[in-house]
Amino acid sequence: MKSITKLGAVSALSLVIGASASFAETIKIAFIDPLSGPFASTGTNGLHQFQFAADYMVNEKGGVLDGDTFEVVGFDNQTSPKESLIQLQVAIDQGIRYIVQGNSSGVANALTEAIDKHNRRNPDSRVLFLNYAAVDPALTNDKCNFWHFRFDANADIKMDALTDVIVADENIKKVYIIGQDYSFGKAVSDAANKMLGEKRDDIEVVGDELHPIGKVKDFTPYARKVVSSGADAVITGNWGADMLGLGKAIIDNGFEGPIFTYYAAGSGMTAAFGETGKDRIRLISQGSINPIGSEEARETYNAFKEKYPEGNIDQSRIFNTIGMLATAIEEAGTADDVVAVASALEGMEYDSMWGGKLFMRPQDHQLIQDMHVGVHTNENVEFDYDNSGFGVVNESTIEMAGMDSATTCEMKRPE
Question: In whole angstroms, what is the distance from residue 94 CA to residue 371 CA?
Fold first, then answer.
């Protein structure tokens, strides 16, 4: 495994060797995610985090190579795979060679297929897909390709950690699984059923259903079914407005057990749940915020809040994505040759300021990292979300989660 230190050292070197700003170029990164519609707040906060990470971690430290800077450009896909492909082509036509996306595995599946096809047909304008949040396991299994790198843990890795916590609680005997009706929601359901059965066969799944994504205005009917099922716990992969709507409805209709989630923090959700979610909502995530992973992370978070007082760093993986990309470009000695950059990313070890070591597994381009299960609370919170006084505090940590997990990926590398 290649061992790469954090960006600070290479950025400091860039300040010395990047003497002539006249030769510096701008490396553009296309952010293709929802900036309008029901998931606009999630996408907008993600864009702000990417833009801040690019400036704070790269540009303000002298850039990469001979002073080249990063620019993150937002493209609104309206959470639509079809619109995402249109925006992808617009970005490629503008000469952008790095694509980041995360909201919706349905979109990610469309993008990775299109990018693979584009790169085979257009070797002179190849692009890399840096997936920061779409966690359908297929993306690093049967649908893997050389151009796709995932910086989040996949749904199976996350569910493995969540179910470890669930099965350790002897009071949980009945579980209700509910999620959005697309590839990710189905992956969460499949993993939950499989892993609960393997780890504790006395747990009964008393409900397992999917609902339309981004279209349900009132989750009360779903919440009533959860309550009437007698479930002791709920598992959901919902995100954005669907997470908030479902979670609020379940709690408001009298459910008193834990709700195990993937994305129930930030973007207005934490403030909306407030006291009602305390000690109830649990979240699987990467990167340690409470407690903070390092003094560098503390300084970064405070600087972000100074620029975006209403925002949150609720996706530390965004900063990991920018840091690892910059480090790969430095190692490759170019930003134009994406094959060289991809080769530098493969097998990279990277020390994250949010705590722990990151490893980009070369056989499937799945990032391996520590995972944390935290609880929504207002106690021992240094960094809250939504200026609410509430945040997510770690309760347990799984080191290098999924390191030995199986993959069906048969990686085909360019000659």
Answer: 37
Q: Taking each helix axis from N to C terminus, what angle separates 105-121 and 183-199, rounded to the nearest 10 degrees?
A: 110
Per-residue tokens: 229: 């099922």
- Each domain of the chain, given as residue ranges in start order, spans 2-153+292-369, 156-285+372-401
CATH for 2-153+292-369 is 3.40.50.2300
Yes or no: say if 359 and 369 are a contact pair by the CB < 8 Å rule: yes
How far is CA 232 from its chain centroid? 28
**HSE of 396 in the Cβ direction (CA atoms, 13 Å)?**
14
Closest to 292 (Cα-Cα) out of 360, 370, 382: 382
For residues 324 and 6, what is the distance between their CA atoms, to the nearest angstrom? 8
- C-alpha dist (Å) from residue 43 to 8, 54, 104, 201, 351: 28, 17, 11, 39, 26
Short-list 411, 399, 343, CA closest to 4: 343
8 Å CB contact between 374 and 282 = yes
- CA 88 to CA 80: how far, in whole Å? 12
**Which top CATH class is 156-285+372-401?**
alpha beta
Confidence of residue 135 (pLDDT cuts 50, 70, 90): very high
From residue 236, alpha-carbon distances to 169, 225, 270, 392 in Å are 18, 14, 16, 17
Distances (CA, A) of 230 to 205, 233, 234, 253: 10, 9, 11, 13
Q: Please give the model's pTM, rounded to 2 decimal places.
A: 0.90
Instruction: Please report the pLDDT score of residue 267 as a whole number.
Output: 83
Please provide residue 263's backbone torsions phi and psi, each rounded to the nearest 5 degrees.
-140, 50
Q: Do domains 2-153+292-369 and 156-285+372-401 have the same CATH topology?
A: yes
Between strands 128-131 and 357-361, the pairing is unpaired
The string of DSSP letters for 190-245 reads: HHHHHHHHHH-TT-EEEEEEEE-TTT-S--HHHHHHHHHTT-SEEEE---HHHHHH
How many angstroms separate the CA atoms of 261 and 161, rounded? 11
What does the block give as tokens for 398? 């799984």
Reported as a single tens digit per residue, the pLDDT across 243-291 is 999 999 999 999 999 999 999 998 889 999 999 999 999 999 999 999 9
- Using alpha carbons, list the distances in angstroms from residue 76 to 73, 81, 114, 140, 309: 10, 11, 18, 25, 23
